[in-house]
Design goal:
The protein is mainly α. Among the domains are: about 170-255; about 265-335, no CATH class; about 335-435, Serine Threonine Protein Phosphatase 5, Tetratricopeptide repeat; about 440-565, no CATH class. It contains 30 helices and 6 strands. A 6-stranded mixed beta sheet has the order 2-1-3-4-5-6, sandwiched between helices. Strand 3 (about 520-525), helix 30 (about 530-545) and strand 4 (about 550) form a beta-alpha-beta unit. Helix 7 (about 100-110) packs antiparallel against helix 8, helix 23 runs parallel beside helix 25 and helix 27 (about 460-480) packs across helix 30. The longest helix is centred in the last third of the chain and has 18 residues, at about 460-480. It is globular and about 95 Å long. About 45% of the residues are buried.
Length: about 575
């Protein structure tokens, strides 16, 4: 058996296997079990060879079945792993506490909730439900299958929990984009004595911080990683870069990227995409060139980031050249995402004939994202004809996005076609479409606060509204005039201005100004595109209060400082 343990390749294993046959050791249960384990679980495993050996065993036990199931799971062949589990049950070999974690992992990978629940029932009968590793696997399986209530139920029933239990629960919430839940669970974990967060938890938390724009909390997690780990691997470093960039700190993200000792394709993809949404198109293209010089081949994901950089920065010629380079030099077939970037780029530049021509020449049917980007560009350039064409195609695709009708209604309202505008709006309830409620998130003292339009849910809402009133007086003196062009109702100008007064972004701004010092950068995350009035309003506020304000909306970042925005009013 020492010979098997020293093997470093399948060739050496086959030689040992031949010696076992010569010496008559193959039928020794201990020897054959170790042979299967070496073939199935080593880094250079060969599952075909392991399966051939396994097939020769007359009466395989739980160890042999577990080894083969684990090997197939490690190989990513989850279907075969589950078939072996069924064969194990048919052979009347009882599963043990080593079997269930592997099988539940296969169920999680394939999102087989019904099978996972059946296995849960089975392990209850066999009294494995109190095993810590089995419980952790159940939390993970239910989370991956989208049944968060069952994940929480298993967690609550645990008499003893490990850090892995908390990690599985946080990952379950992250899988469903329940970022607030991730942070709350982490706070509960850290409040317990002698608990130390492991790397997987912190990566999930970084993802939560990324989506919520919680820079201070993300920075503190970075500090925790630096204090408790001897070194950061490329995956963690890339997650940190992604967090800093998407929380608005492009400088920290770039600094961390430049300090990386080893960069891979994914690292470049993240930094290029990050620079794109911040509007740093030229810098993104420079890093793309650096990547090619380093001998790292781009893939379709990298090219989505590169073309997005051109799109956000309005680099039409560069975008078209890179699109052709992707096809001709790197032999990458454009996906719908790549075509969408170029069509959006052309639309933003008011090149509607070229955009429509490209849509006609696409090798695939344009989807709702393509037509929606054209509709958005038509709205920005007041091209009602193109907007109507885009909407007709969206209707044909049976789009369920209420925003499509709101955009065309806005265009009709600007053209003072109030009847058409009202009709477009009636389509939303008629088609039972859900409107995404606009919301803003702002981080103050490592806590994230949520605001919606006309919000009075906060305990100090009266102070916030008073600050809005004070801000309005100063805005008047600076020459601010509310932009009512996106208020769709056929009402007088004063009523339109009232509708704009307490937009979620303005409430978040007022709250942040009250609760932060003047040298603190205000960071806001929006779940929808920023309206024109909030954009103008925030530019004025950056001057009046001498504050740097960073807003991330659905499309990109806006850096407001000294009355100007990094998007150059192009978003």
């Amino acid at each position: 058996m020492s010979s098997l343990k020293s093997c470093k390749s399948m060739r050496e294993v086959k030689q040992v296997h031949a010696q076992m046959l010569k010496l008559g050791l193959f039928w020794n249960p201990y020897c054959v079990s170790n042979l299967i384990a070496t073939c199935a679980l080593s880094n250079w495993r060969n599952m075909d060879y392991a399966s051939s050996v396994f097939g020769l065993i007359d009466d395989p036990g739980s160890f042999e079945f577990n080894t083969m199931i684990r090997g197939h799971v490690k190989e990513g062949d989850f279907e075969t792993a589950l078939q072996l589990f069924v064969e194990m049950l048919k052979s009347e070999v009882l599963p043990d506490n080593f079997t269930y974690p592997i099988v539940l992992k296969a169920c999680a990978a394939l999102c087989l909730l019904d099978l996972g629940m059946q296995i849960h029932g089975q392990l209850l009968k066999l009294a494995f439900h109190d095993d810590l590793y089995v419980q952790n696997s159940l939390i993970n399986m239910y989370g991956k299958c989208g049944n968060i209530s069952s994940s929480c139920a298993v967690f609550e029933e645990m008499e003893q929990r490990s850090v892995a239990s908390w990690s599985a629960l946080i990952a379950a919430h992250a899988n469903l984009c329940m970022w607030w839940g991730c942070l709350e669970i982490f706070r509960n974990l850290m409040s317990e004595e002698d608990r130390r967060a492991e790397e997987s938890i912190l990566v999930s938390l970084l993802t939560a911080c990324t989506h919520l724009g919680a820079l201070d909390l993300g920075s503190s997690i970075h500090g925790y990683l630096m204090r408790n780990l001897s070194g950061l691997n490329v995956i963690v470093e890339t997650s940190l870069i992604d967090m800093y960039i998407k929380c608005g700190s492009i400088k920290k993200g770039l600094a961390l990227f430049n300090r990386m000792s080893m960069k891979n394709q994914h690292s470049y993809a993240v930094i290029i995409a990050g620079l794109a949404i911040h509007g740093h198109g030229h810098e993104a293209l420079r890093l793309f060139s650096e990547m090619l010089e380093q001998g790292i081949e781009p893939d379709d994901v990298v090219y989505v980031g590169v073309l997005s950089a051109c799109r956000h920065a309005g680099l039409v010629q560069e975008g078209l050249e890179l699109f052709n380079k992707m096809k001709l030099k790197h032999q990458i077939q454009p996906t719908i995402q790549h075509y969408g970037c170029i069509i959006d780029l052309l639309g933003r530049a008011s090149m509607f004939d070229e955009a429509l021509d490209l849509i006609q020449r696409m090798p695939m049917t344009p989807n709702d994202v393509v037509w929606r980007s054209l509709l958005s560009a038509a709205r920005d350039h007041h091209n009602l004809k193109v907007g109507e064409k885009a909407l007709r195609n969206l209707v044909q695709l049976d789009s369920k996005n209420a925003g499509d009708y709101l955009m065309i209604a806005n265009m009709y309202a600007q053209a003072q076609r109030w009847t058409d505008s009202a009709f477009a709006r009636t389509m939303i309830p008629q088609k039972a479409l859900d409107q995404v409620a606009g919301a803003c998130f702002v981080e103050v003292k490592r806590k994230v606060y949520r605001f919606v339009s006309q919000d009075k849910s906060h305990s100090n809402w009266e102070d916030i509204y008073e600050m809005i009133h004070q801000m309005e007086w100063q805005l008047k003196f600076e020459g601010y005039i509310p932009d009512v062009s996106e208020v769709l109702h056929d009402v007088d100008v004063e009523e339109k201005r009232q509708n704009l007064r307490h937009h979620s972004q303005k409430l978040a701004l007022a709250f942040a100004i009250i609760h932060t010092s003047q040298d603190t950068t205000i960071r806001i995350v929006r779940n929808i595109r920023m309206c024109r009035d909030c954009h103008i309003y925030t530019k004025f506020i950056s001057v009046i209060y001498n504050r740097e304000i960073i807003v991330r909306d659905r499309n990109r970042f806006h850096h407001f400082k000294d009355g100007a925005c990094s998007c150059r009013d192009y978003w």
